[in-house]
Design a protein that fits this description.
The protein is an alpha/beta fold. It contains 4 helices and 12 strands; from the N terminus they run ααβαβββββββαββββ. It has one domain: NagB/RpiA/CoA transferase-like (Rossmann fold).
C-alpha cells in the first residue's frame, strides 16, 4: 500500500476505536523533565488529546510552543500561555491555530501527532509534510528529542513506507507506556 492508502485505512481504524488517555506519564521521561522548551500541538478529532498534557507542561515551568501553519504548510512555533488566543485555520476548518509571539530559539523536545509509527521510528502523519519540513529546517528542531503520541494498537509492527525527507521519531508515547527506538542515522 502507498502512504495515501495507508492514511485512509488508519484514519478509519482510529475512528472505530474507543479512545482515552492523558499521556501524562510522558512527563517522567528524562528528555522532558530536563527540557526548557517543548513544542507540542493542539489535538483535534480522535487524535490523542494534548489538552491536559499541554497544561501540565506549562504548570511545570516549561516554555510550551504550539505550531502555526501558513498557507504553504510551513510551521512557525508560537509561545503558548493559558490565556493566548486561537483562530480557526482558513484551509482546515477543524484546526485551531495560536495567535502570539513567534519563538526563534532551539527546541529541546517536539511532541508530534501521527497516525502510525513503525518499530524503527518511521512516522506516518496526515500527509501535509509540515512536521517533516519543520524538523529538517535549520537548527531550531533538528537536535530535539522527537516523540509521537499514539493510541494503543497504533505502533505498527510492519515497516511503513519511508522517503528520504521523512524524519524519524525517537520514541512513541502510548496511553500508558513510552517506547524508545534505537538511534540510527536517518
Amino acid at each position: 500500500m502507498n502512504k495515501q492508502e495507508l492514511r485512509t485505512r488508519f484514519r478509519f481504524e482510529r475512528s472505530q476505536r474507543s479512545i482515552g488517555g492523558d499521556w501524562l506519564h510522558l512527563l517522567r521521561a528524562t528528555e522532558i523533565s530536563t527540557a526548557r522548551t517543548i513544542a507540542s500541538y493542539l489535538s483535534y478529532g480522535d487524535e490523542p488529546s494534548t489538552l491536559i498534557l499541554n497544561e501540565k507542561i506549562i504548570s511545570l515551568g516549561k516554555e510550551l510552543l504550539l505550531p502555526r501553519t501558513d498557507s504553504q504548510g510551513l510551521i512557525t512555533w508560537i509561545k503558548w500561555q493559558p490565556k493566548i488566543e486561537f483562530e480557526r485555520d482558513k484551509k482546515r476548518k477543524n484546526l485551531m491555530q495560536p495567535i502570539g509571539e513567534v519563538f526563534a530559539g532551539s527546541l529541546d523536545v517536539v511532541i508530534l501527532p501521527a497516525l502510525r509509527v513503525d518499530r524503527s521510528g518511521v512516522r506516518l502523519g496526515q500527509g501535509g509534510g509540515s512536521y517533516d519540513r519543520a524538523l529538517a529546517q535549520g537548527t531550531q528542531a533538528r537536535a530535539a528529542w522527537k516523540v509521537a503520541l499514539l493510541h494503543d494498537e497504533e505502533l505498527f509492527g510492519e515497516s511503513l513506507p519511508s522517503e528520504e525527507h521523512d524524519i524519524r521519531v525517537d520514541a512513541v508515547a502510548l496511553p500508558e507506556i513510552l517506547v524508545r527506538f534505537k538511534t540510527t542515522d536517518q
